[in-house]
Amino acid sequence: MPSSLLLLDEGVPKSVLSVLQRAGYDTKRVQDLGPRGISNGEVMSLASSSKRILLTRDSDFLKLKIGIGRTLKIVYLEAYRDEPEKLASHVENFIDRCLELLSQCSLVVLDEEGPECVGRSQ
């Protein structure tokens, strides 16, 4: 069973939650651990304090520098923005590779071609 703890931001479709849980990942949604509509800073704190890798579709996380790397790892889901079922299948196919890459970097972007390291660990 996978050992990574995952946290899905509010914009990530439920279909992604379903495939990750079926694959054995301990996966929670932001709204399971805190109130809806919290700020990105609060999402980062929640992910960090719960020691979970954040999966998000919010491009604001691509601009953040503080906290990423030391206490926070992020997978940005860029692929299939308007096709939740395709996104879920894509995440299912590539989640293991995304998590492998997070040992080398703090931010992985998953686009339609596959995952890529963007932020190097500090």
> What is the CATH architecture descriptor?
3-Layer(aba) Sandwich
- pLDDT < 50 runs, ≥5 residues: none
Write down the CATH topology: Rossmann fold
Major sheet size, sense and barrel closure? 6 strands, mixed
In DSSP terms, counting alpha (H) and pi (I) runs of 4 or more, how many helices?
4
Description:
It is globular, with a radius of gyration of 13 Å. A six-stranded mixed beta sheet has the order 2-1-3-4-5-6, with helices on both faces. The mean pLDDT is 89. It is an alpha/beta fold and 122 residues long. It has helices spanning 14-22, 30-33, 40-49, 84-101; strands at residues 5-8, 26-29, 53-56, 74-77, 105-111, 114-120. The longest helix is centred in the C-terminal third of the chain and has 18 residues, at 84-101.
Brief digest:
With 122 residues, the chain is of the alpha/beta class. It is built from four helices and six strands, in the order βαβααββαββ. It has a single domain, classed as Rossmann fold, CATH 3.40.50.
Task: List its salient traits.
122 residues; alpha/beta; Rossmann fold; six-stranded mixed beta sheet; 25% strand
